[in-house]
Write a structure and sequence with these properties.
alpha+beta, Rossmann fold, Dna Ligase, domain 1, D-amino Acid Aminotransferase, Chain A, domain 1, nine-stranded antiparallel beta sheet, four-stranded parallel beta sheet, binds adenosine monophosphate
């Protein structure tokens, strides 16, 4: 079976790496002009002119990148199965549509309003109560196109800094930690949930994911599974879906969803019986899902900006290095390391030992290292 992947970055690369053992072949469709997947065939099509070419070469289509025109996915879906459905893409591209859908499905969100001018932003900050987070309704990722307002008087500066005509303004959530749940739904509607991950961000970019998330109550896990199941069913979704959440004293609050394999699921490559990448390929191809159980405890460390001393990390018997074959650039995701352990105590020690070889890697902080 030939799988067309819209987008050609590291997620596509890892999808292909997981798909080759199942005898899948891959064609990547890139609109950015700078594909990095480095595997399979690549169609570079900045203007959306070569859809027929893609369609002629593949049996099924999926995506690894959600910032592409929904019209392209819709057009492709008229001819070949596109999983997940283009509606999932549409919802994820627009924070207003996403938060509205969450509300309709009973998934808690921060209180939010929309602002289409600096004055409206100031009014929203006033009504919601500062601090608030303003985000461009479309096109934002990894904390880009966002600003925190500590006072409604910050509105003019925040509006200018974000530079977008429509913003979503959210009440700032005083979270205990950030977590994510990754689920996969098969063509026949079967659903599986990976153990949840605890995620630590630095400068808007994910740095560490620990899975299974330590000290997560059964009730919280059940809530997360209920929320993501509601999304999967509503969207008649096929493939891997990720839901990013804040854990607060009063339970979970949803931040956003991603209609694809996710950075907070990279630990599954060695840390789960079946990786998120393989399960996505299985789902998209119409196969049964694989076992999502954890093999032990994992922590994923992102390699950002600089590669650091990879040779030293390769010497560590508990570390698995994944490089994306990309050039160094500040803030760029170049790879990740999966660290495995049998106890959380051992995991903390191993993660710190590994992180020392990654320049610029922030000190490892998580619920496992929090004092008191
Ligand atoms: P996003 O692009 O929406 O995933 O936001 C990036 C990061 O900003 C999140 O991972 C959080 O660390 C932080 N953040 C976003 N929204 C909020 C919020 N409403 N309250 C507190 N922190 C937030």
């Amino acid at each position: 079976m030939r799988i067309g992947v819209l987008g050609a970055g590291q997620l596509g690369r890892m999808l292909a790496l997981a798909g080759y053992p199942l005898a899948k072949t891959f064609v990547f469709y890139d609109m950015s002009g700078s594909p990095s997947a480095g595997l399979g065939e690549i169609i570079i099509d900045r203007e959306g002119e070569y859809l027929d070419d893609l369609l002629s070469r593949v049996d099924r289509i999926t995506y690894e990148f959600e910032h592409l025109p929904v019209g392209i996915a819709e057009e492709l879906a008229k001819h070949k199965p596109v999983h997940p459905c283009p509606r999932a893409l549409q919802v994820c591209q627009n924070r207003e549509a996403e938060k509205t859908l969450f509300g309709e499905l009973g998934i808690p969100t921060p209180k939010w309003q929309v602002a289409d001018s600096a004055d409206a932003l100031a009014r929203a900050a006033e009504t919601l109560g500062c601090p608030v987070v303003a985000k461009s309704v479309t096109e934002g990722y990894d904390g880009k196109g966002q600003a925190v307002l500590r006072d409604p008087a910050d509105a003019a500066n925040a509006w200018a800094a974000i530079g977008h005509h429509r913003l979503i303004v959210e009440k700032f959530v005083e979270f205990r930690r950030e977590v994510s749940i990754i689920a996969v739904r098969a063509e026949d509607g079967a659903v599986a949930f990976y153990p949840m991950a605890e995620n630590t961000h630095h400068e808007g970019i994910l740095r560490y994911s620990i899975a299974p998330a330590p000290s997560l109550s059964d009730a919280v896990r059940a809530d997360a599974e209920r929320y993501i199941r509601a999304l999967l069913n509503e969207l008649n979704y096929v493939g891997v879906l990720t839901l990013e959440l804040f854990e607060t004293a009063d339970g979970l609050v949803a931040n956003e969803m991603a209609p694809r394999v996710h950075n907070s699921g990279h630990w599954t490559i060695e840390g789960a019986m079946t990786s998120q990448f393989e399960n996505h390929i299985r789902a998209v191809s119409g196969h049964p899902l694989g076992n999502v159980a954890a093999r032990g405890l994992s922590c994923m460390i992102n390699i950002i900006g600089e590669h650091g001393d990879i040779e030293r990390i390769l010497e560590l018997p508990y570390a698995h290095v994944h490089l994306y074959n990309k050039g160094e650039r500040a803030g760029r995701k170049l790879g990740h390391v999966n660290v495995l352990a049998d106890s959380y105590e051992e995991l903390v020690w191993r993660v710190r030992n590994c992180a020392q070889f990654l320049p610029g890697c922030p000190e490892f902080h998580s619920s496992l290292t929090a004092r008191g």
